[in-house]
Design brief:
Elements (H helix, E strand, L loop, with lengths): L1 E4 L16 H10 L7 H8 L4 H13 L3 E6 L2 E6 L6 H8 L1 H14 L7 E5 L1 H4 L8 E7 L8 H18 L3 E7 L3 H7 L2 H9 L1 E4 L3 H5 L3
Parallel strand pairs: 5-6
Antiparallel strand pairs: 1-6, 2-3, 4-5, 4-7
Amino acid sequence: MDGIVSDDMDVAHPHTAICPTLDSGVLAILAGTSRPLTGREVARLMGRASHSGVLDVLNRLTDHGLVDRQAAGRALLFTLNRDHLAAPAVEVLAGMRTELLNRLRHAIDAWELAPAHVSLFGSAARGDGDTRSDIDLFVVRPKGVVEDDPRWHEQLDNLADQVERWTGNHVGIAQTAETEIMRLRNEAPPIVAQLRSDAIALSGPDVTTLLGAA
């Protein structure tokens, strides 16, 4: 397998680039659903926040009108007030990961030499990285394009530069040829298991179709 390796946005919590406090995480959770949530549910979905700290944030945001609070028996339920002037900004922050995927797909669609497959994998795909994480891409070079084709390498280099500008993170590109796919299926090196586990297809067939099921 060929290898091209090209710190910065938190790939698990990209909204912290703008607002590194607990508030941004709480708002990102609320922006991701229309279902009313208790403070305990918000804390659980955030994964690394205390219930009391989340509840303090929710109450403060309620005071500002950005969050709606309603009683349900003995529980308090919270939702994002999408009519608030700040709500569109919150939704943009919460949607940064989706925006990254859209930009990647758009950039790859514009390539002169279309790849056989491109996918995002690793921590950026799983959503469990941090500011030290690379944006990892798996790229399959199509038949008829040789490994040292300068146009092909220019596409990869340009994409790596673009992603670093978008996120601040370095880009790791694992590259192989379309003619090597069957060998990868048969030999199943560690990257194949990782791709089958968490890859998000950006161009071409999905990973299960490309590499087969685990």
